[in-house]
Design goal:
Chain lengths: ~280, ~160
């Protein structure tokens, strides 16, 4: 009798949990965030040293199995790079002259006037996303350190992502490669804008690039930077380089793909940029 | 007392999933330790415990992910429910059977995940190979993982012979 009651109760519990999960959209956000708040801090503390050990181990394996180049290989490579440098210097000179003339015409500000950065935070990667289809990281700064949602996260002058959730001691960074990530970007040469949509991989599409872009304005290898127009990232942070560009006659948008500069699997630390509240430059 | 050991094991696996398992993602997805534990409990544990444990472990996995909240909870609950009901037909005490059960169950869970994300605008062509990779990893790791879990099986209410539970 007791076994049958227990069996019935557990069956009921399973059905109840299923129905509760399917109706999660009706729950207030605080209820949904509670398990995240509880678990992230609890799991990040023991996982931090393990993550450090495994990332160092993976780096050591890479080093041990890579074959170093011979002297002749290096000399050939140096000669090739010197030749490329000469060509690129000429291109750079031409591009600088073009940029100066555009600046005079459009009076492009050197800095975005709406952002004033105050006190960047160095953060260490303590853990990864448990879902194989998502790309996010747990970092070692949280609301205790003054971190809030939607702060940009960078590595040097490379855009990594933004803070998607904050907890007491830790935060979660949604990187550019995450399928739900959207970043306003600009092609460094032609200055056309678009929206980089994360795809879960290193190569991501850029949407809303107009089909009227002329041949040669966007080329394979062109740099892509943040535009700053989304109000989250400062402008001109490196995002990646163009790997594919094709105009589609029947569509309004061109087909553009960008390879992200940062290899997120090698990430060990990052910088969280904090904005000063209520300051707008002129 | 068995719930204490189940929670402790789940917590340890969660820590490993966050810190160690992502290294293997470069090699085709990596194993899903939480799902392996749920499959183990479905085959060896109390028949009514597995769906509830599956729900909690799935929710824990959702909580440490930026993916849709509750998706893994539902998928793990459904997988545990089905496996625990048909286990008398699929259970065999051999490494190959464990690998097959783990591989097929993982494939179904992850394909369901892929189709849900595809309905939300995801790229199915990029996700399906990853799902297959995870299923292969789980099939490969299952015999070892089940052997480790069985060492502490009694404490979690799990047993080799189905007649015991």
């Amino acid at each position: 009798m007791r076994d049958r009651t227990s069996h019935a109760l557990k069956q009921f519990a399973s059905i109840f949990l299923l129905v509760a999960t399917l109706s999660l959209s009706l729950f207030p956000p605080a209820v949904v965030d509670f398990p995240r708040l509880l678990l992230t801090d609890a799991v990040a503390i023991p996982s931090a040293p393990l993550h450090l050990i495994t990332s160092h181990f993976a780096g050591a394996l890479d080093w041990a199995f890579s074959r170093g180049p011979s002297r002749q290989d290096l000399e050939r490579e140096i000669a090739k790079l010197n030749a490329i440098i000469v060509v690129k210097e000429a291109d750079l000179q031409r591009a600088r002259q073009e940029l100066e003339s555009y600046k005079e015409f459009m009076a492009i500000p050197r800095q975005n006037p709406f952002f004033v950065w105050n006190g960047d935070l160095v953060a260490y990667i303590n853990g990864n996303d448990t879902d194989v289809f998502s790309r996010s990281y747990i970092v070692s700064v949280g609301s205790h350190d003054g971190v809030t949602k939607d702060l940009p996260v960078v590595w040097g002058n490379v855009a990594l992502g933004k803070i998607s959730q904050t907890y007491i001691l830790y935060s979660r960074v949604r990187v550019l490669a995450d399928p739900l990530s959207r970043v306003c970007v600009r092609f460094a040469n032609c200055r056309y804008e678009g929206v980089l949509a994360g795809s879960g991989r290193q190569i991501c599409p850029v949407r809303y690039v107009p089909n009227r872009v002329m041949d040669g304005e966007i080329r394979i290898g062109d740099a892509v930077v943040t535009s700053g127009t989304d109000g989250i990232f400062p402008p001109d942070l490196v995002v990646g380089k163009v790997t594919r560009f094709a105009r589609r006659p029947a569509e309004a948008e061109a087909d553009v793909e960008v390879e992200l500069w940062m290899d997120f699997s090698r990430l060990e630390n990052c910088l969280v940029l904090r904005k000063m509240e209520g300051v707008r430059g002129g | 007392m068995r719930w204490f050991w189940i929670v402790l094991t789940g917590y340890a696996l969660l820590v490993l999933e966050v810190s160690v398992v992502p290294v293997f993602r470069q090699m085709g997805g990596g194993p899903d330790l939480m799902l392996l534990f749920v499959i183990f409990l479905s085959l060896y544990g109390h028949v009514d415990d597995a769906p509830i444990v599956g729900w909690f472990l799935g929710l824990a996995k959702d909580s440490l992910s930026t993916g849709p909240f509750g998706l893994y909870a539902v998928l793990f609950l459904a997988a545990a429910f089905i496996l625990s009901r048909i286990r008398s037909d699929i259970y065999l005490e051999s490494g190959k059977a464990h690998a097959a059960n783990a591989g097929v169950a993982t494939l179904f869970v992850y394909l369901a995940n892929c189709f849900w994300r595809w309905s939300e605008g995801g790229d199915l062509g990029a996700m399906v190979p990853v799902a297959i990779g995870v299923a292969i990893w789980n099939a490969a790791v299952a015999p070892l993982a089940f052997g480790i879990f069985l060492r502490y099986g009694r404490r979690m209410g799990a047993s080799r012979r189905l007649g015991d539970v």
